[in-house]
Request: fold
Amino acid sequence: MDVLEEAKEKGRLLFAKPCEFVLGAATVDGIPAAELSEIAFAGRSNVGKSSLVNALTGRKTLARVSDTPGRTRQINFFRLDNRLMLADLPGYGFARASKSDSARWTELVFAYLRGRPNLRRAILLIDSRRGLLKNDIEAMELLDRAAVSYQLVLTKADKLKPNELDAVESRVAAESVRHGAAHPELIATSSVSGQGIPELRAELAALAST
Ligand code: GDP
Reply:
C-alpha cells in the first residue's frame, strides 16, 4: 500500500468507530473542557455541514440536516472513538439573522477559537456552486485573527461539471494563499457521491490523538 492509501485506510478505520454526541454549547460557559484533539467545522448556513459530518462518520442523523438554515445556534460536540472531538460550529450568513444574532455568533465562535489549545484544525466549508462569498472571507479573517490553522473544503462538488469545479478550485486556492493560517490543500467533497470523503477522513485521522 502506498502512503496515501495507507492514510485513507487509517481514516476509514477511525471514522468507522463509534461517534457519539457529547453536548451542545450555546454560550462560552457551556463549552466542554479541552481533552482530545479537536477539529472544528465551520461554514455558511446551508453549506452542507451537517451532511458532511454525517458522510464522514457514515451516519445519517448524527448532525441534524436541516432545510431551515440558521436554526442551529450552538456548538455541537461529537466524540469519535475517544481519539477525536468534532465540533460543529453554528452556521453563519443566515439572511434573516439580526445584528444581535450575528454579534452573538461572533462572540461565541471567537471565544471558542481563541481558547481552544486542543483545536488541531478548523475545516471551513465553501459551497462549490457559490465559491467564496463576503462572509466566507470574513470567516477566514476571523480564523486568521484567532491564529487557528484551517483548511478550506468545497461541498456539493456533485453539482458542478469537472471544468466548473476546476475553475472554482483555482479561485478559492488563489484567495487562500493570501491567508497565513490557511492550509494549502483544498479538498472538493460531495456528501451525495462520496467524492473527497476518504481524503478528508485521512487528513483528520492524521490529527487524531493516539
Ligand atoms: P448545513 O446547514 O450546513 O448543515 O447544511 P445541510 O447539511 O443541512 O445541507 C443543506 C442542503 O444542501 C440540504 O438540502 C442537503 O440535502 C443539501 N446538500 C448537502 N450536501 C450536499 C451535497 O454534497 N450534494 C448535494 N447535491 N446536496 C447537498
User: Anything to note?
Assistant: The pocket of guanosine-5'-diphosphate is lined by residues 43, 45-51, 65-67, 69, 91, 155-156, 158-159, 190-192 (CB under 6 Å). The longest strand covers residues 119-127. The mean pLDDT is 91. The helical segments are 3-15, 49-57, 99-114, 134-146, 162-176, 197-205.
